[in-house]
Amino acid sequence: MTQDEMKQAVAKAAIEHxxxxxxxxxxxxxxxxxxxxxxxxIKHQIDGTVASSEASAERLRGHGIEVMxxxxxxxxxxxxxxxxxxxxxxxxxKGGGGALTREKIVAAxxxxxxxxxxxSKLVDIMGTFPLPVEVIPxxxxxxxxxxAKLGGQPVLREGFTTDNxxxxxxxxxxxxxxxxxxxxxxxxxxxxxxxxxxAIRPADVLLLGTPDGxxxxx
Length: 218
Ligand code: 5RP
Prior knowledge:
Elements: H1 3-14, E1 23-26, H2 30-39, E2 48-51, H3 54-62, E3 76-81, E4 85-86, E5 92-93, H4 100-109, E6 110-118, E7 131-135, H5 140-149, E8 153-156, E9 167-172, H6 179-187, E10 192-195, E11 197-198, E12 205-210, E13 213-217
Parallel strand pairs: 1-2, 1-3, 3-6, 6-12
Antiparallel strand pairs: 4-5, 5-11, 7-9, 7-10, 8-9, 12-13
Helix pairs in contact: 1-2
The structure holds ribulose-5-phosphate (5RP).
């Protein structure tokens, strides 16, 4: 089974978590794209979606699925999105696609967060995948120096601007032993918009694609 086939299988399985007659939060990335394509098959059963990126919004609209402004929505039943890494506590690293801030906002509003990923994303200790940090452009160098003091090696994502007009520092060489603490510490650096650790608000369910089928971890 290829990685894409495992992503497709979890995307299909996630349809069971869609609550009919409600608004659904939609993530970003290749696994989320598979989910959007599956959602299209039941689009008449939902009230609409809130997207975590312009790219996902465009894909949703391409399928004729309504995309709503988060400010016009008071409740999202479930948020479905991929991840770059997850540990067994369902703490995540996200932001490989650069959409981490909007992803974190939509996850915060949602009652339930279902993470969909292939088995390569489950790790014992997070940090092999460089941790994305969204930064206000004028604070880039200051934030990079502060992150270096914490032991990380920040690398500017060249030629990339987020949907919010900011830059991303990808932080290498982190062995993340205390995800909640690191998430808080990084967010306290002035100039950081947010970082890609989802530990304060982890996923509620992880659907993991394996060659033996989809495993559910809670
Ligand atoms: C985008 C993300 C994605 O969920 C993450 O990068 C995983 O992507 P993929 O599903 O393509 O493996 O956080 O910002």
